[in-house]
Amino acid sequence: MFEDKVLTCKECGVEFVFTVGEQEFYAEKGFQNIPGRCPECRRRRKAESRGGSGEREMFDVICDECGVETKVPFRPSGDRPVYCSDCFRKRQY
After folding, report:
1. Which domain holds residue 44?
2. 53 has pLDDT over 60
3. Which residues are registered as beta bridge partners of 7?
4. Could you give the C-alpha distances from 38 to 17, 35, 49, 60, in angstroms and in order?
5. What letter does residue 69 receive in the DSSP assignment?
6. What count of other Cβ atoms lies within 10 Å of the Cβ of residue 84?
7. Widest CA span in the chain
8. CB within 10 Å: which end of the chain, N or C, has fewer?
9. Distances (CA, A) of 47 to 22, 52, 64, 65
């Protein structure tokens, strides 16, 4: 049903491939439009919408499960436990 499509970025003019996998993802999410920007321009645009830095503010915490020092991308409120990525993944399953 789908096949790779070569598109041209409307921002930088570079050609990029809209892969079968990406098309399936778009269809699954109900997206109607094909991407107008190449992956690099999409990343740059997303970073600019976050205030230009492109990096999330990270907060230092101690994992409530194993006690290791780690960083999380949200400000802990103190009323719920916070886990390092390893302990968080273990609790997911």
Report:
1. 5-49
2. no
3. 16
4. 8, 7, 17, 34
5. E
6. 20
7. 50
8. C
9. 21, 6, 31, 33
